[in-house]
Amino acid sequence: xxxxxxxxxxxxxxxxxxxxxxxxxxxxxxxxxxxxxxxxxxxxxxxxxxxxxxxxxxxxxxxxxxxxxxxxxxxxxxxxxxxxxxxxxxxxxxxxxxxxxxxxxxxxxxxxxxxxxxxxxxxxxxxxxxxxxxxxxxxxxxxxxxxxxxxxxxxxxxxxxxxxxxxxxxxxxxxxxxxxxxxxxxxxxxxxxxxxx
Length: 197
Ligand code: NHR
Ligand code: GAR
Fold this sequence. Notes:
Layout: E1 2-8, H1 13-24, H2 27-31, E2 33-40, H3 47-53, E3 57-60, H4 69-81, E4 91-94, H5 103-108, E5 113-117, H6 129-135, E6 140-147, E7 157-164, H7 171-195
Parallel strand pairs: 1-2, 1-4, 2-3, 4-5
Antiparallel strand pairs: 5-6, 6-7
The structure holds ligand NHR and glycinamide ribonucleotide (GAR).
């Protein structure tokens, strides 16, 4: 079985979209893959209840309990690696995960670590992407699924979707429009990877 482990920090709507697509499209039968665990760095992440309700293991690892990023990342790897099998190495999926990961952590999962970022990379790496796109007067915004490398939001691009920026948009209204596309492209990009791996 190929295990997918998803890291979240909040609502987890991208995680939920992946879980629903995996069930609807029978990733277990088609690819021998399943969402095995959802791990949050915040205990109050709404997505945890959704995952537990779908029979998925959940765990919380509070970054505030660690005095260095390396220590948090080491503990996180230990949780994740419970789901790693030699024959079928796991796929690690960041879905609204809000902690920058250390180079050591990233190299451990290099090539099997994905993120969805709410901008059309390489524009607007980092935070507050929607407000920055509005400030620049962009007419298009969107989201990017990419491989995670040690350099923030710079890995190989696997999928993108664009949406129009409309008159009167706020960061929130634009974020909501982008998010509907994220829910389509992220499960699709993961299915494409599973199909070709
Ligand atoms: N880690 C690496 N090494 N490379 C990437 O490309 C990563 C990553 C970790 C997360 C997601 C990313 C995004 O899609 C991601 C990509 C958090 C921050 C951030 O500044 C930036 C980018 C992303 C996620 N986080 C603050 C920090 O100090 C905390 C912010 C908060 O807690 O609200 O880690 O945008
Ligand atoms: C999504 O828009 C995702 O692209 C973005 O946060 C939202 C999470 O929503 N990710 C980042 O900003 C990473 N820094 P979700 O928790 O409902 O999936």
